[in-house]
Amino acid sequence: MRSVGLALSLSLVLSLVFGTVSAEEKRASPHDKAQAVLAGKKVTIEYGRPYKKGRTIFGGLVPYDQVWRTGADEATTLTTEGDLLIGALRVPKGSYALFTVPGPNAWTLVVSKNAQQWGAFKYDAKEDLGRVPMKLGANAALVEQLTIALEPAGPRKAILKLSWDKLIASVPLAAP
Question: Exposed, middle or buried: residue 129 (CB in 10 Å: 0-12, 13-18, 19+)?
Fold first, then answer.
């Protein structure tokens, strides 16, 4: 009797584990995290990673001069255990949604106080904590899948880099 109960428990655990994996595999855009530690406090960005699939990305799939969810599915989220400076914007510890406004020659990072939203479909500028200009550059090679990285730049600093297609947009982060 005990072995039957154990087998049922194991079966339930396996179905829950594999059920979760199957749900993630069904997403057209897998999800990922970028993490860094600044002054002993963890910073995490969670986002959906769409593929280029031969499409024109910026100025096509992602229109210029409009708020973009900066990923796929749920809004990209930034969670920080400590206060941050993103560019010159002061960001208190907590969770936020990240959006961008891509342009042909300039990009803006938008930090929204509403971290729990689905993409840009519920975006409301009244919920912005602030906006920060991003530096633009070119990738040495085409990047097929959207990639967000937090690259260390010292014990209290990192660079947030967004790479996709032929473009890199970046902004510095720092622990004040």
Answer: middle
CB 69 within 8 A of CB 61: no
Beta bridge mates, 132: 109
pLDDT digits (tens, 9 = 90+) for 20-55: 444 445 767 789 999 999 999 999 999 999 999 999
SS3 171: strand
DSSP character for 51? B
Buried b (16+ CB within 10 A) or exposed e, 26-53: eeeeeebebebbbeeeebebbbbbbebe
Would you call 22 exposed, middle or buried from its count of C-beta atoms within 10 A (0-12, 13-18, 19+)?
A: exposed
Domain coordinates in residue numbering, the chain: 29-174
| Nearest-angstrom CA–CA distance, 46 and 150 | 11
| 108-119 mean pLDDT | 86
Residue 73 has a pLDDT of 84
CB 45 within 8 A of CB 78: yes
E strand segments, 10-127: 31-38, 41-48, 76-80, 84-86, 89-91, 94-101, 107-112
